Each structure stands twice: as C-alpha cells, then as structure tokens.
Amino acid sequence: MPVQYSIRENGGFLHIKATGKLKSEDINDLLQKLSKDNMLRREHVTLFDTTGAEGESLTDTEFTEVLKMLSEFPDKLIARKLAILIKDKRFTKHAVKYQALSSDFGVPAKVFNTLFEATTWLMSEKD
Predict the structure, then answer these.
(1) For 94, what's the count of Cα atoms within 13 Å in the CB-facing half-sphere?
(2) For residue 47, how many other CB atoms are within 10 A of its CB?
(3) CA–CA gap between residue 39 and residue 10 (Å, rounded)
(4) Cα 127 from Cα 125, distance rounded (Å)
(5) Is there a contact between 27 and 66 (Cβ–Cβ < 8 Å)?
(6) Per-residue pLDDT of the chain (127 residues; tens, 9 = 90+)
(7) Which helix (H) or strand (E) element contains residue 112?
(8) In this structure, are strands 81-85 and 3-8 parallel, antiparallel, or unpaired?
(9) Could you tell me the CA-to-CA distances from 119 to 13, 36, 59, 91 in Å, in that order?
(10) 68-92: buried (b, 16+ CB within 10 Å) or exposed (e) per residue?
C-alpha cells in the first residue's frame, strides 16, 4: 500500500507515510480509513511523511477533491497541527499549496526537510 499510517500518543499523534507514486486515490482511501478509526482522537497532530515516495501524480483537480473530503469529516480528519515532511522539490508544489490552504481549515501547517524539525514543531506549543 502506497500510503500507511500509525497512531501514537494515545491517539494524539498521526504519522502518515507515503511510498511509491502518490496518487489522489491513495490519499482518499487513507482519509476514508481514518474517518472510521476510533483510535484517532479529535485533538491530534499529523506528520505526513513523503520521504519514502518516488513522486506524486496529483493534478490540481484531484488535490481539490482531497481537500473536499477533509471538509466532510472535520472532527476526525482536521488536525490541530500538520507537518509535511518532504525530501526534495518534487513534493514542494502541493505541500506548499496545502500549507497555504490549511488556514481555511484553521490548521497551522508547515513544510519540513528533516524529521527532527517536523516532530519538534508538532510537539511544541507554538504554531
């Protein structure tokens, strides 16, 4: 499976890990599973790790569909904070776009290049 997740910290930390070629269907499948996962707390932080992925093939239209699904399950899918971990420029476009749009959902989001910086920010009280 190209997108997997684990839930830690008693449901307060969601770690999503993408591998292979990232497609909108993979993200939508993940969001459907998360919307039904009782382990995930309402107040959680999310680390979206794309460092294991080869690339992404999301069009702007598909990206909009992913955002629409998030708004359908806000209690479950909208994180308190979101860190997007990227390894190179291939993921910058949508990561930065999501970071900019996250304010519409009321979610502080940042793009990082290192796991240490991403998790440090997620676990801090600062936005």
Answers:
(1) 22
(2) 24
(3) 8
(4) 7
(5) yes
(6) 589 999 999 999 999 998 888 787 888 889 889 999 999 998 999 999 988 888 666 666 766 777 777 778 887 888 899 998 988 777 777 787 777 777 777 788 898 999 999 999 999 988 7
(7) strand 109-112
(8) unpaired
(9) 10, 25, 28, 19
(10) ebbeeeeebbbbbbbbbbbeeeebe
- For residues 37 and 57, what is the distance between their CA atoms, to the nearest angstrom? 27
Q: List the structure tokens of 14.
A: 């969601």
Which residue reads 């069009």 in tokens?
Answer: 59
Burial of 57 from C-beta contacts in 10 A (0-12 / 13-18 / 19+) = exposed
CA 27/CA 93 separation, integer angstroms: 16
| Two structure tokens written together for 68 | 């629409």
Global confidence as pTM: 0.86
